[in-house]
């Protein structure tokens, strides 16, 4: 096995593949990077218990300056060591060669490295997924859906199913929902799929975050295919596999209230700034709580931390309608929710002190295709 390649172009592929390589895996060889040299180019593979990534660098890519002299395959372990070497080489290109003793040599300008390698036949095979019934999604929309929902996945393994985002397709619409029992994010978008295509799956939130990193802005569409317990996202030169979470995702439609007694329309950035300032004191206290108070013509955020002090801030609004209400909540949840909205205005819909409230785009306040929900915190004052 022998090839010469542009260092920078290979590093781009290495960074993608390394997203799937972990030093904590129970299968030692998976801490390594699999490299395959074929006549048409290089294929790099990384995998762990959750995701697997394959990416290719083609001979026909002029920027790669790739020349394959001998085909073959090998596993370099640990993968990080190989990446560190390539990153520090002084020349624009290098030559990689493997001898019969499974030793890999890296030659570039005045540098020469020899590192031990492993037989690639011991590397696990990636699952075969039938792409006959696959469909395509806009990368821009998919990344936006991930960004708007993954904030609400659970960080606790006590309910594994909640550590993922529930994706379902029905009647030409993709619905993505995530909840950790304290908050909920939902986004619905139209998709161009066969009319009879229907499914419901749960993708780990961490997998979706890693997928977003490799779906760059220069990629317009991604192909999606499903297997029994795997999902495959494919671009022109990259395959991204993720396991699916097993179990039944809770019914969430009934959690989103259809009615409200109080509605507030506010500027996103204004509200975000007010929440950030108010939370400075709430973070310093034992209980991370901010209270929202609404009267006929007044919105106020307050936080009381006996250890530090007290803060109150009046929040300007475009409109206030409905009943007076006070509601306490975790400010980090509201800040995360506001970060998922484009600049503009949002509408907060509240029912009562202890009922969940929702945030929706102001321009589509009666359309729940995009909604963030937050459960209030019961305080001693609320209990009384």
From TrEMBL:
It comes from Atopostipes suicloacalis DSM 15692. It is found in: Cytoplasm. The lineage of its organism: Bacteria, Bacillati, Bacillota, Bacilli, Lactobacillales. One of its GO terms (molecular function) is DNA-directed DNA polymerase activity. Residues 137-251 form the DNA polymerase III beta sliding clamp central domain. Its main location: cytoplasm. Residues 254-377 form the DNA polymerase III beta sliding clamp C-terminal domain. This is Beta sliding clamp. Keywords: Cytoplasm, DNA replication, DNA-binding, DNA-directed DNA polymerase, Nucleotidyltransferase, Transferase. CDD domains: beta_clamp.
